Amino acid sequence: MIIYRSIDEIRERLPNAVVTIGNFDGVHLGHREMFRRLKKAAADIGGVSVVITFYPHPLKVLPVGRDVRLINTYAEKENLIEASGVDYLVVLHFTPEFASISATEFVRDILVGRIGARKLIIGYDYAFGRNRQGDVAFLQRLGGEMGFAVEVLAPIGTGETVYSSSMVRRLIQAGDVKEVVAFLGRHFSVGGTVVHGHHRGKDLGFPTANLQTDKELLPAHGVYAVKVKVNDRIYDGACNIGDNPTFGDEASAIEVFLFDFDGDLYGNELRVYFVERLRGEMKFPDVASLTQAIGEDIRRCREILRDVSIIEYRDYLGALDHG
Fold first, then answer.
1. Would you state the torsion angle of the CA atoms of residues 154, 158, 161, 167, taken in this order, to the nearest 10 degrees?
2. Nearest 10 degrees: Cα torsion 279, 283, 288, 289
3. Which residues are paired to 120 by β-bridges?
4. Runs of H (alpha helix) within 88-229
5. Which 3 state secondary structure label does DSSP give 248?
6. How far does CA 287 lie from the centroid of its chain?
7. Which contiguous run of DSSP H or E holds residue 52?
8. Contact at 8 Å (CB) between 200 and 220?
9. To 10 degrees, the CA torsion angle through 302, 304, 309, 310?
10. What is the β-pairing status of strands 189-195 and 269-279?
11. 8, containing H or E segment
12. Alpha-carbon distance 62 to 42, whole Å?
């Protein structure tokens, strides 16, 4: 995949470009289906598939009055889009000035003028530009004037559930990491660096890795059965997210206990794949009760993880092509 991180990097129009536009936070199964159709439409006209996205996310720039925690870091989003097999990714720097341009300017100067769009694929409810002027009817009218076709996708989902980033966020924030696999098409994961914590786990007989991450969105506080990737090797494990109420900690932490692992993890990069939530975070009356509960959590995690294989980035392309 060729990545343009500025519209100015595009020196000439792309050949027979079939384009889709969006934020694509989570790169869930709805996005995946859109990319599949994008690639097919490009192949049908001997062209190239182009995904346009924005950085930072527009909701981080516009005064919308609500805090949105993104499902993916930008690097994760880029990896997932690349794994979808599209030809080009165009990243537009989203600023208040960019947000102020009209939908007509965007289509004329960027979509057609720079990229050379021959076809645009959008969702049924898509709109963009100042005051969201660029809705479906607007794009179809400009497409007729400027020489590009517009394909509007019906809602994509399963049963009565339409895939959406907001729905995925709600599931993760509720701790429903097992259920979210059906909408993400993969296990939700968090990557980060192992840093020093309070070192209580070692004293309790369960040495944990304290994970520092750039991820904005984390599952609800509690205990989870997880798979953990260390240097391309996968370990079963248990993860606690929370502020350790038994010890009265103030800051939340991500603590991971790797089963059957012996070694020093400090400074290492880990990726934690969340498989199932066991319980919420609890305050125990004493250390002995906590230790007993941890032992039971580990037993349950081993049982849950016995026959689980994670779905991760490298599986994404194959699943897409056969989806």
1. -100
2. -50
3. 19, 150
4. 96-99, 103-105, 136-146, 165-173, 177-184, 200-204
5. coil
6. 37
7. strand 48-55
8. no
9. -100
10. antiparallel
11. none
12. 33
- Give the integer Cα–Cα distance in Å for 60 and 242: 25
Q: Which of 42, 123, 31, 49 is nearest to 85 (CA)?
A: 49
- Tens-level pLDDT at each residue, the chain (323 residues): 999 999 999 999 999 999 999 999 999 999 999 999 999 999 999 999 999 999 999 888 887 767 789 999 999 999 999 999 999 999 999 999 998 899 999 999 999 999 999 999 998 888 777 777 778 899 999 999 999 999 999 988 887 888 999 999 999 999 999 999 999 999 999 999 999 865 555 555 568 899 999 999 999 999 999 999 999 899 999 999 998 655 555 568 899 999 999 888 999 999 999 999 999 988 787 778 788 888 999 999 999 999 898 876 545 444 444 33
Contacts 24+ apart (CB under 8 A), 294-302: 294/204, 294/206, 294/238, 297/223, 297/238, 298/206, 298/238, 298/257, 298/259, 300/225, 301/225, 301/226, 301/236, 301/237, 301/238, 301/259, 302/236, 302/259
Contact 290, 246 (CB under 8 A): yes
Distance, in Å, from the CA atom of 31 to the CA atom of 121, rounded to the nearest integer, reads 12
Distance CA(18)–CA(35), nearest Å, equals 11
Torsion angles phi and psi, residue 176, rounded to 5: -85, 60
**Can you tell me the distance from the alpha carbon of 241 to that of 198, in angstroms, rounded to the nearest whole number?**
14
**pTM for the whole thing?**
0.89
Pairing status of strand 48-55 against strand 117-123: unpaired
313 contacts: CB under 8 Å, gap ≥ 6: 79, 80, 83, 186
In the numeric block, which tokens belong to residue 317? 């392309």
Residue 175: both structure tokens together: 């701790």
Query: What residue type is 244 in one-letter code?
Result: N
